Automatic annotation (TrEMBL):
GO cellular component, one term: membrane
Signal sequence extent: 1-25
Pfam families membership: DUF568
Keywords: Electron transport, Membrane, Signal, Transport
Protein name: DOMON domain-containing protein
Superkingdom classification of source: Eukaryota
Organism phylogeny: Eukaryota, Viridiplantae, Streptophyta, Embryophyta, Tracheophyta
Keyword set includes Nuclease: no
Organism: Eruca vesicaria subsp. sativa
Claim: Electron transport is one of the keywords in the record: yes
Compartments in which it is found: Membrane
Domain DOMON per the UniProt entry, residue ranges: 50-164
Amino acid sequence: MASHSPLLLTLALASFISLISPTISLTCSTQNVLFSDKTPFQTCLDLPELESYLHYTYNATNSSLTVAFVATPSRSDGWISWAINPTATTMSGSQAFLAYGSGPGKPPVVKTYNISGTNLTEGRLAFDFWNLRAEALNGGRIVIFTTVKVPAGAGSVNQVWQIGGNVTNGRVGVHPFSPPNLNSRAVLNLTGTASGADGGGSKAPGNAGWMTTNVKLGVNLGVLVLLGAIFIF
Ligand SMILES: *[C@@H]1O[C@H](CO)[C@@H](O)[C@H](O)[C@H]1NC(C)=O
Ligand SMILES: *[C@@H]1O[C@H](CO)[C@@H](O)[C@H](O)[C@H]1NC(C)=O
Ligand SMILES: *[C@@H]1O[C@H](CO)[C@@H](O)[C@H](O)[C@H]1NC(C)=O
Ligand SMILES: *[C@@H]1O[C@H](CO)[C@@H](O)[C@H](O)[C@H]1NC(C)=O
Ligand SMILES: *[C@@H]1O[C@H](CO)[C@@H](O)[C@H](O)[C@H]1NC(C)=O
Ligand SMILES: *[C@@H]1O[C@H](CO)[C@@H](O)[C@H](O)[C@H]1NC(C)=O
């Protein structure tokens, strides 16, 4: 009887570790994406859809948000995009930075889009931004860098990101309509790690809240399994 317990305890520990580790070992923290002055960003997030990543630093002094958005186009002539929607959590109304490859050895093209409905036409954005550029990374990935002005005192912004269809003669094709492409939006909390509750009054899930929830679930399950093992012992 007692000889079963070490096995159970090992299983309990293994499941405990496997449950919490995916949320702790963020892929983005291994990407070595740096500021223009070669320092790391304050925070990075593995976004919950489309294998996309956001590195960001918020400067509350002048309410500027510097980001590096990393994603991989689904095809060599495809596009990636990261946007803020100042007025809603939807794609429509998004103020988007969009990049696509421009051939081997050349930096990707990056442009701004003021999206209304499903109309993907280049346009001016509703807020100021600086230092917009894109770089090709290995593995076909593209990174978009920019600094945007956020309304003073805003605790969060609605972010929307996307991996699109093809680009033909500079015309950007529609993105797929699969669930990940439709769910790729979230509240980005600028003031710290969110609790599970969404303080922004928006319907989209907060990134930090999503991660916290996963850690809590992992810990709770791990504790339950440990308790079970102790009872059997
Ligand atoms: C934040 O912005 C202010 C005003 O531009 C600047 O003085 C300060 O150095 C910035 N802080 C960081 C960490 O970049
Ligand atoms: C805010 O600070 C950033 C980083 O220091 C700087 O690049 C930007 O120009 C500043 N923006 C304003 C509106 O002062
Ligand atoms: C898309 O938006 C642009 C700029 O606002 C406009 O000129 C164009 O007519 C729109 N296209 C469609 C199909 O609505
Ligand atoms: C963005 O597009 C909307 C709808 O076409 C328009 O009302 C708005 O003025 C545009 N924003 C800018 C900054 O041009
Ligand atoms: C690009 O995508 C559009 C819309 O999905 C499609 O109609 C067109 O055939 C595609 N072009 C190429 C060259 O694949
Ligand atoms: C952001 O995180 C802070 C610190 O946990 C929290 O107090 C605040 O309510 C959050 N805001 C939003 C909009 O989620």
